[in-house]
From TrEMBL:
Keyword Transmembrane helix: no
Domain 4Fe-4S Mo/W bis-MGD-type, chain residue ranges per copy: 3-59
One Pfam family linked to the record: Molydop_binding
Keyword field contains ATP-binding: no
SUPFAM superfamilies in the cross-refs: ADC-like (SSF50692), Formate dehydrogenase/DMSO reductase, domains 1-3 (SSF53706)
Gene3D superfamilies per record: 2.40.40.20, 3.40.50.740, ADC-like domains, Dimethylsulfoxide Reductase, domain 2
Keywords: 4Fe-4S, Iron, Iron-sulfur, Metal-binding
Name of this chain's protein: Molybdopterin oxidoreductase family protein
Entry superkingdom: Bacteria
Organism expressing this protein natively: Streptomyces spinosisporus
Length: 699
């Protein structure tokens, strides 16, 4: 057994904190501080610190399971893989290639995401592939691409935050989702900068703010327009910058001027003096940033909402300049890389578009297939889940737990149950895996090597620290075995570095160009920011000398003409406004001790003790109307279902809004209630705002 410490990164969120892992008896590792990684400098949150508990957890899967007479029973690998390949072959024969769907995850390494996308298109020939990252940052990705011609969550490193003058943080509770990142904002304030937090709740993050704006959920678009109105009215537009570096200002300006501050106050609940104060703080310094997260993004108008915040940056000359800019705080561990290498319905590796003939030719050549044989774009995540059991009859799922994390979850669960064949690769029997016909136990984090791309666009090497338990195989091995059984003997290596070498070639020349990045470089450097083209092919195998690109857009934006585009956006209501029957707004989110659907973190004793179950956060006035005391069970009912959880009464939330975290299954499952109304561009569901009513529950 290796006993020395292996430097690597956390398995959870997109901050990808650096940590050292030392093997200890019992098939697990000890986590220790890794101070050399500049993002967290040794700091970790509770999730990262306790991550080893999942490695040797008693509920860890170590043998394949197959369904027999309604029950999952242990099986050998050959039996399980044969059953899957027979089922997939039969489905393809009876229903065509699109009868098989593939669903990936934003936690999969770049190598897995790449191999999964290739497997779907080359082996299965299906267009029906998407992933749960669609539910994470797709609105910011769409808005960033429209405005700047490129989507990379943060176009600058986190270390730039303390050196700017003001940050508007919209809909991010990073004090709970990625606590070590809070230090950048504390340093900002120590340096004399200011922090404005936009959130309907006075979260731990909002408590750090110089100014907290608490708009009604789903009205951030109006808020951004109101701020832009005041920017214009008070003469803060950087006319020279707008002239030199942007297009579309007149239309965006006209839309903003139609949103009077008083009108914005009525829509958002944010007072005109607060709007003025926000503009004063944002415009006073030379440099400023706007960072968005799930709040503005998880809406049926998420793309326009993010576009409105980008407009604010562009009008004031705060994009593509040092210490200024717009960025999205991506959530999942490989949320960034996961959206670049082909598991998204409309994409090919390197962030290429599947409907671009040149992109198809390039990738098809790397894959050794005819470009015309590649399927076209498929359905987005919710649309795909909603089609299960209709024209999609079989599903291969990796790294996702949609029974808990998808919107309108009871309906999605019903669709999953109606499949002819569900195959799930996972480390534990998640709520979705429990419905599968075949479950394959796979390696995780400390047991495998692979790359991720953090929220900064920094490509990182996660290194294997221990051997996986007997009986467990990697996702790459699963894809290799299935491809082989389905008649594709080559092209699915099991060595992650070999997959990465192919990914480099497939991404070369694309927007997310990784061709100059090698495992060797990643091992020697603290990550490399893409784009990193290969400057000199002669350097092989040593890799390129291109330094990578920590800061984007300083000379030009990534559009064809190098100019950024304003978004011509106006306020519109959420898809489901409160009414007499459903008079309250529900917004959903996260707590510090749980991660996403909780499949991993709910299995960690320490985290469970800190956050044992769901709750309904509501204002004392709402609680009084309901007759509910602290801890009383409260039923939250939407048009899609009913969830019950204990009341948590606090003045930190607006009286017209309730909040539920979404990490748990069962009767407190928040996503039973959420609205799958989709953003027309990003296809993001409206997780952040829907109409509900509250009912007291007699015990
Ligand atoms: Fe892991 Fe994110 Fe916590 Fe860092 S902040 S330790 S990356 S979960």
């Amino acid at each position: 057994m290796q006993t020395s410490a292996t430097p690597t990164h956390c398995p959870y969120c997109a901050l990808q904190c650096g940590m050292n892992l030392t093997p200890v008896p019992g098939g697990t590792v000890e986590v220790s501080e890794r101070a050399d990684f500049p993002v967290n400098r040794g700091a970790l949150c509770g999730k990262g610190r306790t991550a080893p508990a999942v490695l040797s957890n008693r509920v860890r899967l170590t043998t394949p399971l197959v369904r027999e007479g309604g029950t999952l029973v242990p099986a050998g690998w050959d039996e399980a893989l044969d059953r899957i390949s027979e089922g997939l072959r039969r489905t393809r024969t009876e229903h065509g290639p699109d009868g098989v769907g593939v669903f990936g995850g934003g936690g999969l390494t770049n190598e897995k995401a790449y191999a999964l996308g290739k497997f779907a298109r080359v082996v299965l020939g299906t267009s029906q592939i998407d992933y749960n990252g669609r539910f994470c940052m797709s609105s910011a990705a769409a808005a960033g691409t429209k405005a700047f011609g490129l989507d990379r969550g943060l176009p600058f490193p986190l270390e730039d935050i303390p050196r700017t003058g003001c940050v508007i943080l919209v809909g991010s509770n990073l004090a709970e989702t990625m606590p070590p990142a809070l230090r950048f904002f504390s340093e900002l304030k120590e340096n004399g900068g200011t922090l404005i937090v936009v959130d309907p709740r006075r979260t731990r993050t909002a408590e750090q703010a110089d100014l907290h704006l608490a708009p009604r959920p789903g009205t951030d678009l109006a808020l951004a327009l109101g701020l832009l109105h005041l920017v214009v009215a008070e003469g803060h537009v950087d006319e020279a910058y707008v002239q030199e570096r942007t297009d579309g200002w007149e239309e965006a300006r006209a839309a903003a001027m139609a949103h009077w501050p008083e009108q914005v106050e009525r829509i958002t609940g944010v007072s005109v003096p607060q709007l003025r104060e926000a503009v004063r703080l944002f415009c006073a310094p030379e440099e400023a940033m706007v960072l968005t997260a799930r709040g503005p993004e998880q809406q049926s108008k998420g793309t326009d909402t993010v576009g409105a915040w980008i407009n604010l940056c562009l009008a004031t000359g705060r994009a593509g300049r040092p210490r200024s800019g717009y960025g999205c705080l991506t959530g999942q561990g490989n949320g960034q890389g996961g959206r670049e290498h082909g598991q998204k319905a409309d994409q090919l590796p390197g962030y290429r578009k599947l409907d671009d003939p040149a992109a198809r030719r390039h990738v098809a050549e790397v894959w050794g297939v005819d470009p015309d044989a590649l399927p076209g774009p498929g359905r987005s995540a919710y649309e795909l889940l909603d089609a299960l059991g209709t024209d999609i009859r079989a599903l291969l799922l990796m790294g996702s737990n949609p029974v808990v994390s998808a919107p309108r979850a009871a309906h999605v669960e019903g669709r999953i149950r109606s499949l002819d064949l569900l195959v799930v690769c996972d480390i534990v029997l998640s709520e979705t895996a429990a419905l599968a016909d075949v479950v394959l136990p796979v390696t995780q984090w400390a047991e495998e090597t692979g790359t991720t791309t953090s929220l900064e666009g920094r490509v990182l090497l996660r290194r294997q620290a221990i051997t996986a338990p007997e009986g467990v195989r990697s996702d790459l091995e699963v894809l290799h075995e299935l491809a082989d059984r389905l008649g594709v003997e080559k092209g699915f290596p099991t060595d992650p570095e070999e997959v990465f070498e192919e990914l480099r070639r497939a991404s070369a020349g694309g927007p997310a160009d990784y061709s100059g990045i090698t495992y060797r470089r990643l091992a020697e450097e603290n990550g490399v920011f893409w784009p990193c083209p290969q400057d000199s092919p002669d350097e092989e195998p040593a890799g390129s000398v291109h330094p990578g690109t920590p800061r984007l857009f300083l000379d030009r934006f990534a559009t064809a003409d190098g100019r950024a585009r304003f978004a011509p956006v106006s306020h519109r209501a959420i898809a489901e406004e409160p009414d007499e029957e459903y008079p309250v707004l529900l917004t959903t989110g996260r707590v510090v001790a749980q991660y996403q659907s909780g499949a991993q973190t709910r299995r960690v004793e320490e985290l469970n003790a800190a956050a044992p179950g769901p709750f309904v956060e509501l204002h004392p006035r709402l609680a009084a109307r309901l007759g509910a005391a602290e801890g009383d069970p409260v039923a939250v009912v939407s048009r899609r279902g009913r969830a019950v959880a204990p009341a948590r009464i606090t003045t930190a939330i607006r009286p017209d809004t309730v909040f539920m975290p979404f990490h748990w299954p069962g009767e407190g499952r928040a996503n039973t209630l959420t609205n799958p109304a989709l953003d027309p561009t990003s296809k993001m569901p409206e997780f952040k705002a829907c109409a509900v009513r509250l009912e007291a529950v007699r015990t």
